[in-house]
Structures are given as C-alpha cells and as structure tokens.
Amino acid sequence: MNNDINSSSIRELEKFISDRHFKKIFIIAGNNSFIQSGLKQFFSNLTHKNISYFFKKEPIPKYHELIQIVKNIEILKPDLIIAAGGGSVIDYAKIANVLDISKNPKEEIITSNYKLSANSRKLLAIPTTAGSGAEVTANAVIYVDNKKYSIEDKLIKPNYFFLIPDFVKNASNKIKSSAGFDAISQGIESLFSKKSNAESVEHAKNSLKISINYYLKFLKEPNNDNTCAMLFASNLAGKAISISKTTAPHAVSYPFTSFYNISHGHAVSLTLSKFINFNFINQKKADCKFDLSERYKILFDITKTTNINDLELFIEKILVEANLENNFEKLGININNSIDKILDDVNDQRLLNNPVKVDRAILKSILLKS
Predict the structure, then answer these.
(1) Domain 173-368 has CATH 1.20.1090.10
(2) DSSP 183-213
C-alpha cells in the first residue's frame, strides 16, 4: 500500500481502513468480481464501519452510469471511496470522485473542457485484475454515446492503493488473459510513444521483464508468486503510460470494445503485432525525439528475439497460449463491412502518440491485412 510497489496482505488492508478515521465508506465494484475475489466477505466483516455500495452493470465505463455514481457520492458524502475491481471500476471512481456535474458534464467531457473539483475525500484503489495499472495513472476512460473519451488530470489519481494477490488470483482466465496482455501492450507501447522519456522507458522495461516472464504462468498455474509478479508488472506499466500515454494499438482498440464487446486487453491484442511491424519497417519516417531502432533493441533483448519476424512470432505465440483469438471472422466481425464504422471511432489522441504517422488509409490497410 502506497506509491512504492509492495504487495499487501488482507490484514494490512483491514488495519488501514480500521485505523483511519473514515466514518462513511462508499464502495464501487462489479458484482461478480466483488464476490469471486473475496472482497464481499472481507467487507462484510467490517461491521464497525458505515459502508454503502454501488455495483456497476455496464461492461465498460459509460457516462450514464458515471452520473449515477456521482449522484450517490453527493447524497452519501463519504470520507473514503473504495474502487474494488478492474480498470473500469477504478476509472469510474477516479472520475466520479472529482467530476463537477453542476453544469453540462457530458458536453464538457466531449470537448475536453471538463471541470474537476479537489475535495477532502480520499480514494483507495484495490485492483482485482493484474493489467490496467489504473491505480497509479492520472487518467481515466469514459464512454459517451459509445465513443471513448479520456479524462486526464493529477486530481483523479487515487490517494492509496493496495496490491493484494488473494483478491486477484481467483479471477477467470478470460479476465486474466485480457488484463495481463493489456499490461504487456502498455509496456511495449510506452517504449515507442512519442511522449516517452527516460523515466517511462525504465518503468516500461522493468514491467515487460516481469510480465513476459510471468504472464503465461499466471494463466496456467496461478499462485501467490506469479500473481504478485503480474500485479507489479501492471503497476509499473501504469506508471509508464501515465507519463508516455499509449499509441496506435490502444487507439484502435476502443471501437472493438464499444461495438463488439471485446474486453479491453483482448481488443488491444488485435493490432499490437501489426503496429509493431508497421513502425519497424517505417522507422525512417519516424517523427520522435529518440532513436526508434534503439527502442526495438530493448524489446528484442527483453523478448530474447533478434529480428522483427521473430518478435512477431513471439507475440503471436503468447496470444495463442493465452487463448486470445485474433481472427476477425472467428470473433464474429466482418471487417470489410465494419471498417468505416471502426475507423470513425478510433481515438485520435492516442494515435498521435505513435512514433510513425498513421492516417486513415494506413489504418484501413493494417486492419484489412490478413
């Protein structure tokens, strides 16, 4: 618990909540993960605290549900908000804790002219997935009319977080595979982002060294050690992208989530290797302040590959072993018929971070490539 990466025990979390002068606690969670993780049992034992709950229904953070949460906070006036769940739950809590809805928040979010308010409430994040790193990022995602928008401000960063393996290792393999691959993709994209710097590169390298080594073990034989490792990798990836932001694979992922209900990390995996290849073969066109070839050397070294073909095969092998299907047809997506709808919904903000310029024609070519 805190801004250093240390795994915590359930006992330490209990002590933290009990010792602090939190009179009213508001918990935001997903109903299934709250039960499966063991968090429901944990909080049911805290009978000396005044606790209220909000269980999200949407699979991704949507505006109408966000407003419900904000209104609950206004009524309850909690001392502590606890986000107990995956990236969507934590993003809800991060935004709801500081969003001012007195005027027209919907329009303000769409135009990036939102109003955030500092307050005395504290926000505690307890991840139930190892992947998003949302507990340390100063940004959050919200979908308005099925289009993804980012809220970015230091005010939304949680005050505290606990990384507790016991609340993560019982998640389904579908959740683990998607969330874990998101951490891998965040590390890779952070290395290549135009906004990256020495600090973000160091976080990304350290994250990838862990996630590449432990991801499949975490899926196949989850235990305390590999769950801790993936929580650490996710946390470091979150620190990396908080500085560098993500790039093209994340930019293209959002319509696959909003239109086809493909989980976030899985959606990112659909184009990661394609953009790794695209950026590599177009290095001479790169528009970044660093030597892109040096970043590829870092990735080759971490993955123990020596060329771009081996690197692509390495990533594809991980996807196969993690059961992350990348064939559009098998996912029920007619990419030829859907291409314009998908391209219209790509996140331009993240696309601009890509080291090589990507326009609509290039995106179309990449997505249609078999």
Answers:
(1) yes
(2) HHHHHHHHHH-TT--HHHHHHHHHHHHHHHH
For residue 111, give the DSSP letter: T
Residues of the chain with CATH 3.40.50.1970: 10-167
Task: Please enumerate, as own/partner, the contacts of 279-286 that have beta carbons within 8 Å and a separation of 24 or more.
Answer: 279/192, 279/354, 279/355, 279/356, 280/308, 281/308, 282/356, 283/356, 285/356, 285/357, 286/355, 286/356
Closest CA to 257 of 56, 31, 33, 61: 61
Mean pLDDT of 152-180: 95
The rounded distance, in Å, linking the Cα atoms of 162 and 151 is: 23
**Distance of alpha carbon 74 from alpha carbon 231, whole angstroms:** 32
70-to-26, 52, 160 alpha-carbon distances in Å: 11, 13, 20
Q: Which two tokens stand for residue 120?
A: 């005395």
Q: What's the whole-model pTM score?
A: 0.93
Fold of 10-167: Rossmann fold (3.40.50)
Which pLDDT band, with edges at 50, 70 and 90, does 4 fall under? very low
Which tokens belong to 140?
């959050």
